[in-house]
């Protein structure tokens, strides 16, 4: 780390941010009174709030739904307040509010609730994602926090750990080297485009176990050694920045679908080993963008 930046200090700050986020989120978990839709096109809804009729009867279709809750907003607000006070020279990029420019080149990428659909459903697989990114857009540290389960995954250059019950335990990816023996995951295969679905279908047909709906928690379990591969697309910077240090710190691999150094977003694949990664890329490269 450069002069003026302490790895331990930034990890400690990230932990305090995660604690503050959970304090803000906790009153809303399994107690929501409202869920807003960030994707809603109000032009499709008349003033009486009823869907506009169509000329011929048809199977109803829903409008796009991108949920956001007061838990998302409250957590991001409290994180931003702490960073404004303690790291005023750092930038902040989050999912729910406009970007705060950086004066130092360093910025925090935060997703207060990654997996809002799971949060709305009351399922404890959503996470809070926090990462510090350097001036070259390389994530330096990352936290994947699942406070309902009491699991916090930390990653930094050369190491990763899980904090649970007040104790920090080193974590490492599994020893799986063969996709045919692997447990793989993606959040939702139906958000893939047709070419991506084809690639995923190949992976699913090859792997031993396939799981869905875990969002960033799946990457935490790659680092924890129980999931061997996660492949996703259409990701945003705040979706992925925290994942890279955790998976890499635990000995895993992170690339784009071509096998190149990944950008902060887009198509991402994480794997427990070179063997699993290379076998997966045989399929993923065909639909890489």
TrEMBL record:
Required cofactor(s): Mg(2+)
GO biological process, any: inositol metabolic process
Organism of provenance: Hyphomonas oceanitis SCH89
Segments of skewed composition (Low complexity): 50-64
Keyword annotations: Magnesium, Metal-binding
TM spans (from-to): none
Entry keyword annotation includes Membrane: no
Gene3D superfamilies xrefs: 3.40.190.80, Fructose-1,6-Bisphosphatase, subunit A, domain 1 (3.30.540.10)
Positions bound to Mg(2+): 95, 111, 113-114, 239
GO molecular function list: inositol monophosphate 1-phosphatase activity; metal ion binding
Name assigned to this protein: Inositol monophosphatase family protein
Region (Disordered): 40-70
Keyword Calcium on entry: no
């Amino acid at each position: 780390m450069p002069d003026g930046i302490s790895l331990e200090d930034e990890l400690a700050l990230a932990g305090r941010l995660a604690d503050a986020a959970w304090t803000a989120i906790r009153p809303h978990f399994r107690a929501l009174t409202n869920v807003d839709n960030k994707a809603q096109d109000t032009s499709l809804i008349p003033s009486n709030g009823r869907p506009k009729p169509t000329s011929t009867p048809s199977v109803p279709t829903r409008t796009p739904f991108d949920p956001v809750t007061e838990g998302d907003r409250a957590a991001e607000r409290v994180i931003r307040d702490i960073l404004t006070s303690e790291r005023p020279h750092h930038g902040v990029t989050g999912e729910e509010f406009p970007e705060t420019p950086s004066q130092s080149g360093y910025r925090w990428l935060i997703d207060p609730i990654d997996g809002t659909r799971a949060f709305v459903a009351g399922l404890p697989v959503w996470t809070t994602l926090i990462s510090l990114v350097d001036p070259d857009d390389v994530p330096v540290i990352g936290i994947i926090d699942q406070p309902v389960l009491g699991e916090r995954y930390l990653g930094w250059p050369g190491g990763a750990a899980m904090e649970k019950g007040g104790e920090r335990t080193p974590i490492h990816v599994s020893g799986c080297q063969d996709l045919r023996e692997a447990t793989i995951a993606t959040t939702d295969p139906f958000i893939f485009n047709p070419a991506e679905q084809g690639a995923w279908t190949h992976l699913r047909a090859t792997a031993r176990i396939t799981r869905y709906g875990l969002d960033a928690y799946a990457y935490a379990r790659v680092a924890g050694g129980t999931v061997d591969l996660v492949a996703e697309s259409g990701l945003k910077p705040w979706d992925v920045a925290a994942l890279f240090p955790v998976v890499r710190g635990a000995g895993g691999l992170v690339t784009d679908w071509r096998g190149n150094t990944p950008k902060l977003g887009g198509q991402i694949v994480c794997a427990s080993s070179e063997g699993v990664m290379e076998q997966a890329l045989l399929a993923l490269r065909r639909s890489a963008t």
